[in-house]
Write a structure and sequence with these properties.
heterodimer; A: about 400 residues; mainly alpha; Serine Threonine Protein Phosphatase 5, Tetratricopeptide repeat; about 0% strand; elongated; B: about 110 residues; alpha+beta; Alpha-Beta Plaits; 4-stranded antiparallel beta sheet; two-stranded antiparallel ribbon; 6 strands; globular
Chain lengths: ~400, ~110
């Protein structure tokens, strides 16, 4: 049976909303982003009405583009009439209305790429940056964003309001990408996509689908970067490699009940060989230059995780974590490094190294210590696990940790 | 947190380049400091060969090692709660196993005299 429009629409919406908006924003300019979004929303509204009554058209995407195109022409005609009558202005708008909208594959790709650079402004605060990217680049609704962040809708709305005002006021030119723009913003772009992916991969949200969508959206956008010669840098390839390696384990890290499966207990048959191979491909592409970015190091770490034990696996991982922590401090990197350290030098040495970190209010700090103590000092392990349970916001993680506590108390 | 410079010294010129194990140990030590978010500047190693000393009276001599027994092999800057804390960290540096030493010096802020 063919998919009904109710099934197809959310998917099409996610995919085409951002594409259409990008193309239209290129025409109207970011100052008038709201007009572009209104036209696209109207188009989807019409789709629900017409498709609901008449069934799906043969080519739904083409149908959407035709409607969007006509709605835009109508809008411009109205605007032009208004301008002519009220202000006495002539000609220019008429010409614009006559211009056909280019919804070709190339125009979509170019517009989207330009949109990524418009959205990723180094001046944005991290949290609002991610919200803006999710809405404008990935077509996420406020509810979905709120769900992914475990944050109230009002907070998300506020963040978006601020970020969108910035986008509008900067009026970033959505023309062909310039070398200088790329240099100025590529770091922010990569960082945003990296955070976007992590938000999905490590999200505390219980909504499995939203999380998967986040990951695949980040991959889609990173792919856009590697497909354009100007943005196909070694860093972009390293980031994409990292995403491929991580994605290869998406199926294995959750069981049928949606419980988190720890890395060591994952069924490796569930790892996607295809995605690992893709990761290898992009990692090789990433290693053509001299520069080593944090994406290179993280991709390297993820690569070693896909390999079987032996071959000094953990020594390699520790070395990469050592370089990573020297490049950029984060509590998570510090703790992951300590885990690798314990793998190489044993749990006792790992405990000494971990306790130096003193990250008392970080749940992962306590779950790591719980793990390291579990073999030798069960009461101490339970103590740390309980602290971790109290600190984490993730329901799934609480459950996983409680099971460890029960196991130790038996 | 206060900043401290660690100055590494060896009494003789190392004959062989460090082994992979020594490199690994050094790296682990440095990364361990970074993992505590106490690294300010990972500093540099200093060449024992490319060395000159200039003195008053237009005197230039090769290397620092003709007149002093120990020469500086490298430096780094970290931050720590106290000089005791910094000393504790320095104590674990692998250079001590090679007979070298680490000097710990509090960095003066502009306000301090």
């Amino acid at each position: 049976m063919a998919a009904s429009y109710q099934e197809l629409l959310p998917h099409l919406f996610r995919l085409e909303y951002t594409r259409m908006t990008a193309v239209l924003c290129r025409h109207f300019g970011l100052r008038h982003m709201a007009i572009a979004e209104d036209i696209v929303s109207d188009t989807f509204l019409k789709a629900t009405e017409v498709w609901g009554a008449q069934g799906l058209p043969e080519n739904p995407a083409a149908w959407l583009y035709t409607v969007a195109k006509n709605k835009t022409k109508d809008y411009l005609k109205r605007a032009s009439l208004f301008e002519t009558r009220v202000k006495g202005a002539i000609q220019q708008q008429e010409q614009e209305a006559a211009r056909d909208f280019d919804f070709s594959g190339q125009a979509i790709t170019d517009s989207q790429l330009a949109m990524i650079f418009a959205v990723c402004d180094p001046a944005n605060a991290t949290a609002s940056q991610i919200c803006l990217a999710l809405q404008v680049l990935c077509g996420f609704s406020v509810e979905e964003i709120a769900d992914a962040f475990l944050t109230g809708r009002e907070t998300i709305k506020k963040r978006l309001l601020r970020a969108r005002a910035g986008l509008r006021d900067n009026n970033f030119h959505l023309g062909p990408l310039q070398e200088t723009t790329i240099q100025a913003r590529l770091d922010a772009v990569l960082r945003t996509l990296y955070l976007l992916f992590n938000e999905g991969y490590f999200s505390k949200s219980g909504n499995h689908l939203v999380r998967k969508d986040l990951c695949s959206e980040a991959v889609r956008l990173a792919l856009l970067l590697t497909e354009n010669p100007l943005t196909n840098t070694t860093q972009a390839n390293a980031l994409l490699a990292l995403m491929c390696y991580q994605s290869s384990r998406l199926e294995a890290r959750e069981d049928e009940e949606g419980e988190v499966v720890l890395f060591e207990r994952q069924d490796q048959n569930l790892w996607s060989r295809e995605l690992i191979d893709k990761g290898n491909h992009y990692l090789v592409n990433a290693c053509t230059g001299e520069a080593v970015s944090k994406y290179h190091l993280e991709a390297g770490i993820a690569y070693w995780h896909t390999t079987p034990a032996g071959n000094n696996k953990w020594e390699h991982i520790l070395q990469l974590y050592n370089q990573l922590i020297l490049l950029e401090y984060s509590a998570v990197t510090a703790l992951n490094r300590t885990f690798a350290f314990a793998k190489v030098y044993g749990n006792k040495a790992g405990i000494a190294e971990a306790e130096k970190l003193g990250l008392e209010d970080v749940s992962y700090y306590h779950s790591l210590l719980g793990y390291l103590y579990a073999g030798t000092d069960a009461p101490k392990a339970v103590l740390h696990y309980n602290k971790a349970i109290a600190l984490t916001k993730s329901v799934a993680e609480k459950r996983t940790l409680r099971r460890e506590v029960e196991r130790l108390e038996k | 947190m206060k900043e401290f410079m660690l100055i590494f010294r060896l009494s003789e010129k190392p004959v062989a380049p460090p082994s992979p194990e020594q490199m690994q140990e050094r790296m682990n030590w440095l990364a361990g400091i970074a993992a505590q978010n106490k690294l300010v500047d990972k500093g540099n190693r200093l060449s024992p060969a490319g060395a000159r000393t200039v003195k008053p009276g237009n005197v230039v001599s090769d290397g620092p090692f003709t007149e002093i027994k120990e020469f500086v092999t490298g430096y780094m800057v970290l931050k720590a709660a106290s000089i005791e804390d910094a000393t504790e960290i320095a104590r674990a540096n692998p250079i001590l196993k090679m007979g070298g030493s680490v000097e710990i010096r509090a960095v003066l802020t502009p306000e301090e005299k």
